[in-house]
Amino acid sequence: MTGVSLERASERAPKGALASCMIPPQFEIAIHARPTSAVEGVERPIHDRPARILAVEPAEMNLPFPCSFEELFERLERIPRFFAEPDGSFVWTGMDDGTNWQLEGNLYDLHGRVIWVSVKGFCPESRWRQFIALLGEGSDAGFAIQLLHEAVYLSQSEFLRWQWDRDC
Predict the structure, then answer these.
(1) The whole model's pTM is what?
(2) Cα 33 to Cα 57: distance, rounded to the nearest angstrom
(3) Among 36, 112, 143, 151, which one is most buried in terms of CB atoms within 10 A?
């Protein structure tokens, strides 16, 4: 979409196509270390799109990440256009293929270990993969992604499919 304004593109796009395909979908989530007991359960529609819900025990959702708060903070600060504060708040902005995107959120820790990360915004799939790889560096377990407004958990792979695998 280089060189074409969103306003002009919207005049040519079918109704709804601009929001669902040209602009990355927005989300508001919490990222938790995935407990070993978590299993993918029933499939149900979320915003008219099927998603396989992750069955988790709420008491297990404060497992520590594989790194300390300071280690993760330092890793994330090395990303260009990633701005972080010592309290754990952050914002990461950029432009890919002529579209601006932004993620913002907070790192939450307990006894020096990250226990969850809140994130809201929108970004291309490649940026999400970069972000989640840095969070999970040193871990094979993956994450449980909580859709905050929908009050459900998805596996890391199911969130990726549900969020970016769209028919346009």
Answers:
(1) 0.83
(2) 12
(3) 143
